[in-house]
Amino acid sequence: MALIVQKYGGSSVADAESIKRVAKRIVDTRRAGHDVVVAVSAMGDTTDELLELAHEVAPLPAPRELDMLLSSGERISMALLAMTIHSMGFEARSFTGSQAGMITDSHHGKARIVDVTPIRLREALDEGAIVIVAGFQGFNRDTRDITTLGRGGSDTTAVALAAALKADVCEIYSDVDGIYTADPRVIPRAQKLDHISSEEMLELAANGAKVLYIRAVEYARRHGVIIHARSTFSSSEGTYVLGTGMKNPRESEGAVMEEPIVAGVATDVTQAKITVAGVPDVPGKAAEIFKIVSKAGANVDMIVQNVSAATTGRTDISFTVPKADASTTLKALAAEQTEVGFENLLHDDQIGKLSVVGAGMRTHSGVSSILFQALSASGINIEMISTSEIRISVVLRGTDLADAARSVHAAYGLDSEIEAIVHAGTGR
Ligand code: ADP
Ligand code: ASP
Ligand code: MG
């Protein structure tokens, strides 16, 4: 008998029919003799709809109240799921994040889990119940307020529960059959991976692949939790995310698998580009600019500085930040224009970022040249480039992103013979 943690995303519990399908899967796992703990997301696009509602009543909703509001989405689905399981003749009990012992810091909207004390969950399991926990939410001990873990945070709830309860596996169910070499909504020829290293998954998640939430992958790596990403809508095996030294549960003893050089391609349209034009080309200006940006709370991703024009002694500095942070960043910079001495500020939210990720880049040469050749053959212009040890990213026009991703995916030999299946969801 194993202890299995399962997480069902919004598209898996979008309506009554879907909730019944999920309940049946949970009951089947229970029937097979396992203890089951479930983390559940809000139904369908509920979180987005609640957010829109909040912004209709207040331009800048108070963070504490926003967390109260958003956490209610998961309460609805947890109760409905527990009721459904009950009606199937099984004992199920639902718990909010705070009842489940999800203790976080006090950072509303992006709280981090600092402790998990699943006492009530243990009791319920000991009494033979199936445990359902509202994902995405926690509780701060100092403020005694409800917090949320950031968009996609139910994945983290599941992984944290798996770690605290020492579960055998953490199954993350969504509307695709596993982790693919690219988002199958963008590249229908993407291939499902049997497994992926957690360092590669972290890079993919950080660069737009929302199939797993980056903090969940991080948490799993730190606590040695095996993630199995799979689909609610089919019974096929999905993809295992494995940290260093973790054994692939599917691999037979002694079998060594040849790892591909490139694990996958990720696309991201959530960044905007800001250009500070006409910056005096003297020491200290970059420091001044990025101090202002960091004070504004924006997370800078890519940076490019042009060669300064000899006649003017001025240069342009461009960088990318999340679209959501762009306007505060621009305001903060504009307020210091005279101080810094730049000429102009430009804002561009029509960019797209394409990233190629693979641990094999460490030991193979020529990986970047394939990317650049593929883009050049498709006549696509590159605006910015950045690299890490296992990733190359380029910024392009947003309208070129899908074409670019398809040609790069093909150039690395990642295209599959058959089209990937996306079962449900709006991809929102
Ligand atoms: P859930 O609501 O269940 O949490 P998400 O919408 O967060 O599900 O994540 C699943 C979606 O992630 C898929 O529908 C797919 O469009 C997208 N996705 C992005 N990159 C990938 C990838 N590499 N492999 C699989 N799915 C991906
Ligand atoms: N419901 C939350 C969201 O939409 C959390 C989650 O689904 O993981 O972001
Ligand atoms: Mg998700």
From TrEMBL:
Transferase among keywords: yes
Keyword entries, A-Z: Amino-acid biosynthesis, ATP-binding, Diaminopimelate biosynthesis, Kinase, Lysine biosynthesis, Nucleotide-binding, Transferase
Residues covered by the ACT domain: 274-359
GO MF assignments: aspartate kinase activity; ATP binding
Binding-site positions, substrate: 47, 74
Reactions it catalyzes: L-aspartate + ATP = 4-phospho-L-aspartate + ADP
Entry binding sites for ATP: 7-10, 180, 185, 210-211
Pathway: Amino-acid biosynthesis; L-threonine biosynthesis; L-threonine from L-aspartate: step 1/5; Amino-acid biosynthesis; L-lysine biosynthesis via DAP pathway; (S)-tetrahydrodipicolinate from L-aspartate: step 1/4; Amino-acid biosynthesis; L-methionine biosynthesis via de novo pathway; L-homoserine from L-aspartate: step 1/3
Class in the EC hierarchy, top level: transferase
UniProt key word Transferase: yes
Signal peptide positions (record): none
A GO-annotated cellular component: cytosol
Any one GO biological process: diaminopimelate biosynthetic process
EC number: 2.7.2.4
InterPro entries on file: AceGlu_kinase-like_sf, ACT-like_dom_sf, ACT_Aspartokinase, ACT_dom, AKii-LysC-BS, Asp/Glu/Uridylate_kinase, Asp_kin_monofn, Asp_kinase
Function: Catalyzes the phosphorylation of the beta-carboxyl group of aspartic acid with ATP to yield 4-phospho-L-aspartate, which is involved in the branched biosynthetic pathway leading to the biosynthesis of amino acids lysine, threonine, isoleucine and methionine.
Family assignment from sequence similarity: Belongs to the aspartokinase family.
Protein name: Aspartokinase
Organism: Microbacterium esteraromaticum
